[in-house]
């Protein structure tokens, strides 16, 4: 992709994102919903102005990393630690129920065992990016409900990785490697626990030293570099980079430079985060939703079933919290599958675990859960007082 093509694509993405966000806010909807719809309009399924490329996809991934880093920085660490048990509980329920629902719906729909297991696995994911952005747009990112959802989504990522490892083990060897599952679980726990413990000790000292330097922007640059190296470390142990980015933000939220980093990250996020949401919308092919095409009927019915159980499984997870919180808000916040579900689906198709029609059905489920969450979550948040 030539530099002129890249620059033109970025121009279209950023302008479309801001116009879409403005229109959404005009109709009193979260800006992220407008960005997603704008992505559909300029994407391959409609106007075809924005096409995927390796470079643009990398920028979109960086946008997701920055989004989670910002979410971590703006979080109250003490509040997050207070809800860690509830976050884990919500995550477990939000993984087990969708997996079971997805497996049995797929199995009774006529799919094989491996395909049914894989479909169940795709339903376990939670796209924290969508929910985080809605909480941010409405100024509720520090609420107890938001902290539970973010924490649960991080745990979801770890559990989803283990499930994927199990599926790969079944396919490649015909049996599940317990050692491999224990290794991945141990590495995930070691990374998350170790990062928070070591980071809480080292980060304040490092930032204090950096703060004495006189180069312009040095404090924020080092903070952002810390985010990047944590994302790299997260991927090195087999986790998604967004997990490391969120952990980095959470660590920096405990330092005396929290407000400075929080203020400086906003303009960076304003550039990169819309790329992530536009590209998510751009991947949608609107022809999948055409009910007048007989070839789509079977897929659309199955997609509708997947959507129903995907929503039900996550909604129920909100009631796993016995504390005084808005359980419906938590359940809805866990609904979107977003990029995590897309990654699962793409992996299954590329490794011939699932067929093309099944891939499309999963894709439709992911799209629907992603698009319906922002307006529903906004309506719930507006009815819920900030101190509830």
Number of self-contained structural domains: 1
How is the CATH topology named?
A: Na+/H+ antiporter like fold
Largest sheet report: none
Low-confidence sequence ranges: none
Rg over CA atoms:
20 Å
Assign the CATH architecture: Up-down Bundle
Helix-strand category? mainly alpha
Overall residue-averaged pLDDT value: 84
How many runs of DSSP E, i.e. beta strands?
A: 0
CATH classification, class level? Mainly Alpha
In N-to-C order, the SSE pattern is: HHHHHHHHHHHHHHHH
Give a structural overview:
The chain crosses the membrane at residues 6-24, 31-49, 55-73, 85-105, 117-136, 148-172, 184-207, 219-251, 271-288, 300-322, 328-349, 358-377. This is Cation/H+ exchanger transmembrane domain-containing protein. GO terms for molecular function: antiporter activity. The chain has helices at 3-26, 31-42, 54-74, 77-82, 84-108, 113-122, 128-137, 144-173, 178-211, 218-236, 241-252, 258-282, 297-317, 327-333, 338-350, 356-383. Helix 1 (3-26) crosses helix 2 (31-42), helix 3 packs across helix 7 (128-137) and helix 10 crosses helix 11 (241-252). It is mostly helical. The protein has 16 helices and no strands.
Summarize the structure.
With 388 residues, the protein is mainly alpha-helical. The chain is 77% helix and 0% strand. The longest helix is centred in the middle third of the chain and has 34 residues.
In terms of topology, how is this protein built?
Layout: H1 3-26, H2 31-42, H3 54-74, H4 77-82, H5 84-108, H6 113-122, H7 128-137, H8 144-173, H9 178-211, H10 218-236, H11 241-252, H12 258-282, H13 297-317, H14 327-333, H15 338-350, H16 356-383
């Amino acid at each position: 992709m030539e530099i002129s093509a890249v620059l033109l694509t970025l121009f279209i993405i950023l302008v479309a994102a801001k116009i879409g966000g403005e229109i959404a806010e005009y109709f009193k909807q979260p800006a992220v919903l407008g960005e997603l719809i704008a992505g559909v309009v300029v994407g391959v399924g409609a106007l075809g102005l924005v096409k995927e490329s390796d470079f643009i996809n990398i920028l979109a991934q960086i946008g997701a990393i920055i989004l989670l880093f910002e979410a971590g920085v703006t979080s109250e660490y003490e509040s997050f630690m207070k809800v860690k048990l509830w976050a884990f509980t919500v995550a477990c329920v939000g993984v087990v129920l969708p997996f079971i629902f997805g497996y049995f719906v797929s199995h009774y729909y006529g799919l094989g065992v491996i395909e049914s297991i894989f479909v169940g696995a795709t339903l376990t994911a939670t796209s924290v990016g969508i929910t985080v952005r809605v909480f941010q747009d409405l100024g509720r990112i520090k609420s107890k409900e938001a902290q539970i959802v973010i924490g649960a989504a991080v745990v979801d990522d770890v559990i989803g990785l283990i499930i994927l490892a199990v599926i790969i083990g079944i396919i490649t060897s015909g049996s599940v490697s317990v050692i491999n599952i224990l290794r991945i679980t141990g590495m995930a726990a070691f990374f998350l626990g170790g990062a928070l413990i070591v980071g809480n000790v080292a980060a304040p000292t490092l930032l204090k030293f950096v703060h004495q330097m006189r180069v312009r922007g040095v404090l924020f640059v080092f903070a952002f570099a810390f985010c990047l190296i944590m994302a790299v470390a997260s991927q090195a142990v087999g986790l998604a980079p967004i997990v490391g980015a969120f952990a980095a933000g959470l660590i920096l939220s405990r330092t005396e430079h929290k407000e400075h980093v929080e203020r400086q990250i906003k303009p960076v996020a304003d550039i990169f985060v819309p790329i992530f949401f536009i590209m998510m919308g751009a991947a949608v092919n609107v022809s999948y939703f055409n009910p007048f095409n007989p070839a789509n009927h079977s897929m659309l019915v199955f997609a509708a079933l997947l959507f129903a159980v995907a929503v039900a499984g996550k909604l129920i997870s909100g009631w796993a919290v016995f504390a005084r919180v808005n359980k419906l808000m938590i359940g809805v916040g866990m609904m979107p599958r977003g990029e995590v579900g897309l990654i699962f689906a793409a992996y299954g198709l590329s490794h011939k675990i699932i067929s093309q029609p099944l891939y499309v059905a999963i894709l439709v489920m992911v799209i629907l859960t992603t698009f319906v969450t922002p307006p529903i979550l906004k309506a719930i948040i507006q009815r819920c007082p900030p101190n509830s």
